[in-house]
Amino acid sequence: MHRIELARCQAQPWKNGGGVTRELLAWPLRNDANASDRDWSVRVSVADITQNGPFSSFPGIDRCFAVLEGEGVELNLPGGPHRQRAGDPPLAFAGEHPIGCTLLQGPTRDLNLMGRRARGRVTLQTARPGSVFDTAALWRGLFVFEAAEVQFDDSSPPHPLSAGTLCWSEAAGRGVPGATTCAPHRGAMHSDASAHMAASPPWRLISGRHAFWLALLPLETPS
Predict the structure, then answer these.
(1) Which fold has domain 2-117?
(2) What does CATH list as the number for 119-217?
(3) Is the pLDDT of residue 214 over 80?
């Protein structure tokens, strides 16, 4: 189990100057001298959008998006305009689509989950108190924007999580030769890790609001 706090993540400006982003996680970091540090399967970030403009293009990437703070945004999606506000179910779209973003009323802060399509299927769900997240995933996480308590198995006591914390585990890394944790918020995954996945205990959100379940599921996982 790993944790990373939003407050400890450095803000980086967008290439188009439309805001800043804080990367909480880029997973996995492969133990391969020829692999790029950007060769991630999952990326989790929180962005502050300060002006209207396009989203960056990410070919081959699936994206999930939720508004955390502010009045929200209107996104120009392939199917037409869509307004997304805090409290709405997370939105999913393909990273290669040209997405325009218009602020509804002032800056917003948003949660972004990205997954490389060839390596799995990302999912982002609203987590409500009492809800259980029980899935065989390559990677899964819980992001809480406000303080919360979570139980990571049926026998353990609840764990308090401070606001702005991403708690995550790499189910594929257990029992896989060569899979190690490389840094507090980065991990390594064996190339054949999906064949070694172990069942993970269910996670239960005991208390708290403004929380989200995140996961990278195997490609064959049904919707």
Answers:
(1) Jelly Rolls (2.60.120)
(2) 2.60.120
(3) yes
